[in-house]
């Protein structure tokens, strides 16, 4: 599966409608982003069950600001609509593979319990 371009109007529905979504925040002028692009594209081919999406931070400045993207490339991973990974910096292929496998292996009931517990202690 090829990567998908996301915008402020499509990102929410994409995250909601798919079990796992990886989002690469990038810009055309960013050297590390250009080096990470082919790694991300290869991952999309190796994991057709995972949505690999890209957000051009130049075209989507409001979305980047809303999601607090301060450095690019930044990779976010969502599982069942929950942000489970957020890291700036270009990952080498083995590290990206580890992220994908870790996200797939998450026990989402446990993740939801931890979120609920954290929310109750914040209240």
TrEMBL record:
Domain Thioredoxin: 1-105
GO molecular function: protein-disulfide reductase activity
Pfam families with a match to the protein in the record: Thioredoxin
CDD domains assigned to the protein according to its UniProt record, in alphabetical order: TRX_family
Residue numbers annotated as active site: 30 (nucleophile), 33 (nucleophile)
Signal peptide segment: none
Residues flagged as site, Contributes to redox potential value: 31-32
Key words, A-Z: Disulfide bond, Electron transport, Redox-active center, Transport
Record keyword Cell division present: no
Gene Ontology, cellular component aspect: cytosol
Site (Deprotonates C-terminal active site Cys) location in chain: 24
InterPro entries with a match to the protein in the record: Thioredoxin, Thioredoxin-like_sf, Thioredoxin_CS, Thioredoxin_domain
PANTHER family (alphabetical): GEO12009P1, THIOREDOXIN 2
Family listed: Belongs to the thioredoxin family.
Protein's name according to its UniProt entry: Thioredoxin
Organism field: Cellulomonas terrae
Lineage, opening ranks: Bacteria, Bacillati, Actinomycetota, Actinomycetes, Micrococcales
